């Protein structure tokens, strides 16, 4: 796949729209983990682990079932559905790893 400025712009538009679902799901997972007798840092770790996987899967199911026509917009940037979600997964894992190491270095309790 050839990456142009437009295709990268389409990807970041898509990724920004996935955050509308993935962030509340990840926060919900973190809050559910906190209701168990875990420390806050353990709940935060669980949220960061599940953000790129489960939350993105929930977003994919929602979009594929209810917003299927939205994917035609991203074909203008030469993206396929699989390419969008693969890129979003890789980008989400990268963000989770960066946040994990940032918390680990900056906060003693993490």
Largest sheet: none
Question: What's the total count of β strands?
Answer: 0
Q: Per DSSP, what share of the residues sits in E-state strands of 2 or more residues?
A: under 5%
Q: Distance between the terminal alpha carbons, to the nearest Å?
A: 39 Å
Mean pLDDT metric: 82
* Helix proportion: over 70%
* Rg measurement, Å: 16 Å
What pattern of helices and strands is seen along the backbone? HHHH
Note the total helix count: 4
Extract low-pLDDT stretches: none
Shape: elongated
Give me the secondary-structure topology:
Layout (H helix, E strand, L loop, with lengths): L4 H31 L4 H27 L4 H5 L5 H26 L4
Helix pairs in contact: 1-2, 2-4
Provide tags for this entry.
single chain; 110 residues; 81% helix
Could you please describe the fold and organization of this structure?
This protein starts with a helix and ends with a helix. The chain has helices spanning 5-35, 40-66, 71-75, 81-106. It has 110 residues and is an all-alpha fold. Helix 1 (5-35) packs across helix 2 (40-66) and helix 2 (40-66) runs antiparallel to helix 4. It has four helices and no strands.
Write a brief caption for the model:
The protein has 110 residues and is an all-alpha fold.
